Amino acid sequence: MSVTSEAVTxxxxxxxxxxxxxxxxxxxxxxxxxxSLVALAAGAPDDFQPLKAGSYIFLTAVGTLIGALGWAVxxxxxxxxxxxxxxxxxxxxxxxxxxxxxLYGNGGAIGVGALLLMHVAVAAVVVFAYRKVMPLS
Length: 137
Hints:
Elements (H helix, E strand, L loop, with lengths): L13 H28 L11 H25 L3 H21 L2 H30 L4
């Protein structure tokens, strides 16, 4: 008796994927709200626009949707999507820091630090969600 192991790609329906992506946006936005409130309480400038809910919720939604598209492309076309995601996600997060550093003059260390933390938090939330609704294997 021989046992063969074949990798079977799990496919979720579009409503499950859409629900998971929407849930990621909501959870990441809640986490970002907490980060923003803590940063403002710790001394980030009150007029620092990136720490306003309208700014970070919009950018969280856009980034999550773009990330989901990228995840789907990697999942479908990469020979080894796990390996690619392992280096691609941290690389994208670090590259996403660049615009935040340019805001140092307006947001100071606390404001920019909060933005950097937001990027990491969003990445953690969305990778968890993507793995649930769009498994790589």
